[in-house]
Amino acid sequence: MRVSRRGILIGAAVGGGLLVAWTLRPRNFPDPLAPGRGEYGFGAWLKIAQDGVITVAVPQLEMGQGVTTILPQIVAVELGADWRQIAVEPAPVSGAYANVPLAAQWAPLWMPFAPGLAGDPDDLLAKRYAQETRFVATAEGTALAAHEGPCRMAAAAARAVLCMAAAQRWGVAWEECDAAAGFVRHGERRLRFAELAAEAARLDPPDPPPLRPLPASERPITGAADAATSFPRLDLPSKVDGSFLFAGDVRLPGMVYAAIKHGPAVQAELSHFEPRRAARIRELVQVVEGRRWLAAVATNWWAADRALQVMRPRFRVTGPLDSGEIETKLDEAIRRGTGDAVAVTGEGAEWAEAPDLALRYDVAPAVHATLETASATARFANGRLELWIASQAPERARRAAAEAIGLSLSDVILYPMAAGGSFDRRLEHDHAIEAALIAREVGERHGRAVQIVWSRWEEQLAGHPRAPVSAIVSANVRPNGDGEITALKVRIAMQPAAREFGRRLFDNETSRAALENTAGETDPMVTEGALPPYAIPNVTVEHIPVATGMPSGRMRANAHGYTAFFIECVIDELATRHGREPLSYRIGMLGEDARLAECLQRAARLAEWDGGLDQSGKGLACHRMGGAAGGGRIACIATARQDEGGVRVTRLTAAVDIGRIVNIDIARQQIEGGLVFGMAQALGAAIEYRQGLPVQGRLADLNLPLLADVPEIEVDFVASEAEPFDPGELGVAVAAPAIANALHSATGLRLRRLPLLSGGL
Predict the structure, then answer these.
(1) Taking the model in full, what pTM does it have?
(2) Of 417, 414, 424, whose CA–CA distance to 386 is shortest?
(3) b/e per residue 673-688 (b: at least 16 CB within 10 A)
(4) Tens digits of per-residue pLDDT, 612-642?
(5) Residue 39: closest CA among 30, 49, 31, 29
(6) Do the beta carbons of residue 673 and residue 731 sit within 8 Å?
(7) Does 286 have pLDDT greater than 80?
(8) Which end of the chain has fewer CB atoms surrounding its CB within 10 Å, N or C?
(9) Residues 6 or more apart from 161 whose CB is under 8 A from it?
(10) Kind of pairing, strands 693-694 and 689-690?
(11) From CA 245, how far away is CA 29, in angstroms rounded?
(12) pLDDT tens-digit profile of 115-132?
């Protein structure tokens, strides 16, 4: 019988004694940040070199969100460093960098049968799990929640010992010294950090070290660019000149390249290919067979891809995917299926008779469309595997690669690389498994490293899109005619996509096994955001599980990307039907959420909101993420119209409250990028399947916005003393409903399907 961590945790939850023993084990981690020549280490987060360069460890995947600037900035401010001397080093996987808030948030995935034991970032079990399993993952905008505190403590400890070293030289109390701009100062005297690093590294800091007050720059700001929160991004210069290295840029001596062709469905198995037809391709090195794929290895990728084409691989397919069949299953489920209530407020929303309003919404599967397709480099030699890969969950990818080729975890080394886009695509480790299998074959025969790169077609075919959704939102209103909602019910028909993903990530199950093992399960995570921010007295949110047969994955904003669409479009329809102005209608229902009301009012002022009257083409939407007590809020007004070229969005105006802002430039970039990503989801990015094959095989087929299509975007930030909230997904959630409501203003049509104008008025 195989003993898994999942089994241990479940047994612990039932037995109790093992749980206590496991959670009380001491927490000691080897120092993961090894100093190089001329460097001195100061814990897990930073080291100082003799030339004055301060290197900060970053355990999160850089995928465009700016984490390689945010965390070093926190260290630099607390330490008193000169920003021009800050460098970044990808951190090795270690329990010292465990993402506890994410482990707590995802407790239903790694501990599905005992969800009540976790969920709070301060939960002891979540901490132990994250540290023991080295859960260093990048997702859900948890970088600041997980790492701001440890970064500040590490920098404060380093500042203290630097001051101690200087104080010993000067014969003064170290508490009288301060650090700024890379110097320790005492009156007119000053010493560079580099001069003190060797002595300071031998000293013990106070426990706990004294923290600086949060800089005024990190306290509430007006939204204008502020020099104190505007730190230049460290990754931009190299991205501009092309020297920045992504996963696909790795080059090793003698490296060969692999192209791959997957079967057209999750049930597909390789049945036949003709290797003799590739014999004339001189660059071909080797052919590697997988159960559901065929790979060709050559001295260049183009030759490998050409070899695949001429070998004509065929696959035995059972039940190929077809979009029509998937839509039929969703339709049957939303019409006649039964589900479980996953969220209830008040007395819930149940009616003896028909509700006053019931509206149907549908969302097509959507793809990530990252610029860099799945890429990984692997080298197998002397019974060990080295893996260069961009992964949002590097330890899970490392473990999956080890299991794929029968190695112990200690025999696999993973070098973290940056991703050329992810949007949660790099939470999957399918290409890590393929790279390991191919590298073992190539290494044993030729002793060479191999790089696998999926073609765009393979990314569309074998990737994990966001699952399709059907929903019915029903409402009852008071009979006085003012449209006040007394009860709301949201029924969501969808496969248990989060649980399915959890099986792949935490249990290393195949896509097929994950689909089968989660079939029929209720999944509260696929309904996140469906509980509206409004003070509606009675609300019920139900999930109806559907077996679509299509593997699915997580995507930027996840459930919020469609639940905000459902809720905000329904609110707009109710306002229109009862002759209410959409802005005041929303504000009147917000109850005690003054932060979201402020966002709505600010967005209205900036966009010169006119109520969407007289076919102005203006539409309003708002959303809250992260809970009523904290989290982030956004209100957006879109200006859009329909012309002969399709939908044209000309302006997006947003007001945002994300609490204390650490870096204003990155916050603005994230909101702007999220709005454009959400616009892409509203107007395109959908994928269809016919006989298991994607209809949209290229980026050009996805109706993604071009640079010329990007509207004028204006973002304002609300001053807030709340804890910082990651802005990366707020814009994604709110864009589609704002655009849909704007199109109603412009055309009078209500569009209830994503992508918009794809049918289903």
Answers:
(1) 0.94
(2) 414
(3) bbbbbbbbbbbbbbbb
(4) 888 899 999 999 999 878 899 999 999 999 8
(5) 49
(6) yes
(7) yes
(8) N
(9) 42, 200, 201, 203, 204, 205
(10) antiparallel
(11) 29
(12) 454 456 667 889 999 999
Closest CA to 149 of 608, 549, 662: 662
**Cα–Cα distances in Å, from 151 out to 63, 211, 464, 499, 552?**
20, 11, 34, 32, 35
Measure the N-to-C terminal CA separation of the chain; round to a whole number of Å: 54
Cα–Cα–Cα angle for 236, 555, 92, rounded to 5 degrees: 55
Identify residue 114 by its one-letter amino acid code: A
Best CA proximity match to 374, nearest among 433, 326, 329, 321: 433
The dihedrals phi and psi of 569, each to the nearest 5 degrees, come to -75, -40
Respond yes or no on whether the N-terminal peptide bond of residue 208 is cis (omega within 30° of 0): yes
What CA–CA distance (Å, rounded) separates 10 from 259? 41
Tokens standing for residue 338: 């039964």
Report phi then psi at 266, rounded to 5: -65, -25
Which residues are CB-contacts of 166 (< 8 A; sequence separation ≥ 6)?
A: 174, 177, 184, 186, 191, 196
Task: Name the one residue in this structure whose structure tokens are 């539409």.
Answer: 619
Residue keyed to tokens 């660059």: 283
Q: What is the pLDDT of residues 678-735, one digit of tens each?
A: 999 999 999 999 988 999 999 999 999 999 999 999 999 999 989 999 999 999 999 9
